[in-house]
Write a structure and sequence with these properties.
1 helix; 4 strands; 31% strand; elongated
């Protein structure tokens, strides 16, 4: 959050297999928003046989034109997630491969 109380958040999306990053995406920046909603999608193809070893890391950052982008929070989606919603979304995605799934996540700090 900026010193004036506003934020310009965006989400960095990383796909991992074990600890190796396979792909990355960024969402758009939502200017001056403390409660952004992202209606954006991403998809990926993988040859990985064990989808339980794949996971997606969502990192919400505050975009800064000067200096480093500040981390606001993160969410992990996959079997390894400590959060029930992260495991539930992964199960829904695996069950409906090729179809869109939508979930809301609470960020961890």
């Amino acid at each position: 959050m900026d010193f004036l109380g506003s934020s310009d958040p965006f989400v960095k999306v990383h796909l991992f297999w074990k600890e190796k990053r396979l792909a990355k995406w960024n969402t758009s920046v939502k200017k001056k928003s403390l409660n952004p909603v992202y209606n954006e999608s991403f998809s990926f193809n993988t040859d990985c046989k064990d989808v339980n070893e794949l996971y997606v890391m969502l990192t919400v950052k505050d975009y800064d034109t000067i200096g480093k982008n500040d981390v606001i929070g993160y969410a992990l989606i996959g079997e390894a997630s400590s959060c029930k919603s992260g495991r539930n979304q992964w199960a829904a995605m695996i069950k409906k491969l090729g179809e869109a799934t939508t979930f809301k996540h609470t960020l961890s700090l």
